[in-house]
Specification:
Blueprint (H helix, E strand, L loop, with lengths): L1 E3 L2 E5 L5 E5 L8 H14 L1 E4 L6 H8 L24 E4 L2 E2 L2 E2 L2 E2 L4 E4 L11 E8 L7 E5 H6 L3 H7 L3 E5 L25 E5 L1 E3 L6 E3 L8 E3 L4 H16 L4 E4 L6 E5 L3 E5 L9 E7 L6
Parallel strand pairs: 3-4, 5-8
Antiparallel strand pairs: 1-2, 2-3, 4-18, 5-20, 6-7, 9-19, 10-18, 10-20, 11-17, 11-19, 12-13, 12-16, 14-15
């Protein structure tokens, strides 16, 4: 347990998350924000349990951690009616149309919007309405993923770059503004190139950067077969870790994660129940 004046951070046994106690979303100052930022950078994932805050308070709090990023889904079904900064994640329907993004299906391991030139630095996710079970969110550290690589794999990834196509999403749907590519080789599609091992811009620590899927990813300079084999090893190593924090949501819970050094996934849940989450996203730097 660490204490910064009146705030406490209690680390979870997974070594991936810490609970923050003593923070008042109605009354805080710059010293409190500095302490929260320090905990966020230290642990990668922090949690505020069963808060009772408004959308406006979430937006105001999030603003302290960087400029807002508009998630692609906010331009489609996930837009908030009054706060453009908020992405609504929900399986609710209004007049036969989705009133939020992502539905009730599983979301597999990923780093948020890895296909951006400047992926976001952070995300703040608040539970507005939760089902009685299911929809759990899992977090792991990509610092630990890199640091625990066997020596042979660490040598294989250092200095390498990874290409991510940005034409199709993980479900095979064309992304907003993209057209069906003429080539069958995704390496020739629109995309971004990032380091396979990125150095965190604030902590200086190295983290493995795998994005969100093996499909459409390519380690630059390798054959597709070589790249696929190495990526499969890296994904297996990263996601088979036992150091995973599992968030079983209560209404009002807030999870805040550093997108530069973590990955997360979500369980599916019974569509007979409604799950509503409000998320804000803050800008990040180009990975180096």
């Amino acid at each position: 347990m660490l204490t910064k004046e009146r705030l406490k951070a209690i680390q979870h046994s997974s070594n991936v998350c810490a609970d923050i106690e003593g923070f008042d979303f109605d009354r805080y100052d710059s010293r409190d924000i500095e302490a929260i930022r320090g905990y966020w950078l230290q642990y990668g994932v922090i949690r505020f349990k069963q808060t009772r805050i408004t959308d406006a308070q979430q937006v105001a709090f999030s603003r302290h951690f960087g400029e807002f990023v508009i998630h692609p889904k906010q331009l489609q079904e996930g837009g908030h009616p009054t706060h453009r900064e908020i992405l609504v994640i929900s399986n609710a329907m209004t007049d036969g149309k989705p009133s939020g993004a992502m539905g009730n299906s599983e979301a597999t391991w990923h780093t948020d919007t890895w296909f951006y030139e400047k992926p976001p630095a952070g995300a703040i996710l608040r539970a507005v309405q939760v089902p009685p079970s299911g929809g759990d969110t899992y977090f792991l550290s990509t610092y630990l993923a890199y640091e625990t690589l066997p020596a042979t794999l660490k040598a294989a990834v250092d200095g390498r770059q990874i290409f991510f196509q940005n034409v199709y999403d993980k479900t095979g749907k064309l992304r907003l503004g993209k057209s069906t590519p003429k080539s069958q080789d995704y390496r020739e599609w629109s995309g971004v190139v990032h380091p396979l091992v990125r150095t965190h811009g604030e902590t200086g620590r190295k983290a493995l950067y795998l994005g969100g899927t093996i499909d459409g990813a390519w380690i630059v300079g390798m054959s597709r077969d070589e790249s696929g084999a190495l990526l499969a090893e890296l994904w297996d190593h990263t996601t088979s870790t036992k150091q995973v924090f599992v968030q079983q949501w209560d209404e009002g819970d807030i999870m805040m994660w550093d997108n530069r050094c973590t990955m997360h996934r979500r369980d599916s849940f019974d569509p007979a129940f409604i799950r509503v989450m409000h998320r804000t996203t803050t800008s990040g730097e180009r990975p180096v």
